[in-house]
Write a structure and sequence with these properties.
Strand content: under 5%
Distance between the termini: 60 Å
Radius of gyration: 22 Å
Number of helices: 3
Structural class: mainly alpha
Length: 119
């Protein structure tokens, strides 16, 4: 138990220090550098959203395929509890996909509004 806790703490510390180690070497001494590579906050948020969508949608597709398999399996065996779980899981998977799409649509709407307001 204590060994698992120490291993988890070491992993968390390594993941926490990784950005400082990898980004710290590129800045010349005496200059203030941008370590994340984005010029504005909107570019940064767009980058994060792009990564979330690039990772999230393949996972959602795999979940939907797996849930479809569970749905077919439960209906073939007559397992009513399995059907209820499959219906509940497909609902949450589709809701997650809609949240990702909604976040992207909201981002585009806000970006378009801000660009329309600036001269």
């Amino acid at each position: 138990m204590i060994h698992t806790y120490i291993s988890t703490a070491r992993l968390a510390l390594a993941l926490f220090l990784l950005p400082f180690i990898s980004f710290g070497a590129e800045c010349p001494p005496g200059e203030l550098c941008n370590p994340i590579g984005f010029g504005t906050l909107s570019e940064f948020l767009e980058g994060i959203l792009g990564v979330a969508i690039a990772i999230g949608f393949p996972i959602i597709v795999l979940f939907i395929v797996y849930i479809g398999f569970r749905f077919v399996q439960s209906s073939a065996t007559g397992d009513t509890e399995g059907l209820k779980n499959a219906k509940k899981n497909i609902f949450w998977a589709i809701l997650g996909a809609l949240i990702l799409l909604g976040a992207q649509a909201l981002s585009f709407a806000i970006q378009g509004t801000v660009e329309g307001l600036t001269p």
